[in-house]
Each structure stands twice: as structure tokens, then as C-alpha cells.
Specification:
The protein is 58% helix and 0% strand. The chain has 69 residues and is mainly alpha-helical.
């Protein structure tokens, strides 16, 4: 199975929102074994940040994926 290249960014240059969304996207890609659609995942991350931005993004991703956190 082909792994998609997930862009990496220096976290010290990101806002909390961007950092949270990046962590969510990275966990979603891990759960999807590299086969997630980047645009759809980024849209979901933005929407979920607005609702759950105070929570751990990896935990939110696992819950949305259906995996126990």
C-alpha cells in the first residue's frame, strides 16, 4: 500500500489552531494508513477544531475514526 507524503511544518511557526489541525491530520493519516484525502481531512480538522480545540487532536481523530481513545 502506498503511503502519502504528509507535509511537515515547523511547529514553532504555527498558531494553536494550525498546530491542532496538523496534529489531527497526522493522526488521521496514520489511522488511514496514508490513504486519506488531504483536502477532506483538512476540512474536517478545521470543523472539529472549532468544536473541540481545547481537546487533544489525536484523541479527537481516533474518536472520529471510531477507534477507542
Amino acid at each position: 500500500m502506498r503511503q502519502a507524503n504528509v507535509p511537515t511544518v515547523a511547529y514553532d511557526q504555527l498558531s494553536h489552531s494550525q498546530e491542532w489541525q496538523s496534529a489531527f491530520i497526522n493522526e488521521w493519516y496514520r489511522l488511514a494508513e496514508g490513504c486519506a484525502d488531504l483536502e477532506q481531512t483538512a476540512d474536517a480538522a478545521l470543523e472539529l477544531y472549532n468544536a473541540h480545540g481545547a481537546r487533544n487532536p489525536e484523541e479527537v481523530a481516533r474518536e472520529e475514526w471510531g477507534t477507542p481513545a
